[in-house]
Amino acid sequence: MRRKASGRKKYVPALGYHWLTPFYDWLIGITGHGDRLMYAFMQQSQLDHAQQILDLGCGTGSLAILTKRNFQASGITALDCDPKILSIAARKAVHYQVDIQYIQAFAENLPCPDNSFDRVLSSLLFHHLPWDRKQQVANEVFRVCK
Length: 146
Prior knowledge:
- The protein is of the alpha/beta class.
- It contains five helices and five strands.
- Helix 4 links the parallel strand 3 and strand 4 (101-104).
């Protein structure tokens, strides 16, 4: 399932340019920051089975997919504002045969109910945001966490 972000807001795409989006996984992989980095994020998150988990700024879905494959009973929701990168993430999820809910939205206005997630994971999102939006996103993360 995929929900769309409302409005036309500007954002920084993965790698800084829309034309680089299809090459994201390959470029991250050759720099050594691919699966190994996502696995480290997942391990440090102290996850447990049967949790509701939000991957905030999911990009190509690597962290969401890895998490779902290791915590199959957990519900995974992956959110990003970029429709191109969400399309890549959804195709990867089909390839890996994992069920992940994708939402297209901006992180500072999460279309999720209060107290709906046990954990919120985020990798490589906050450095894209100016200070005032970082604060808004942090407030939203606290709002949706149980």
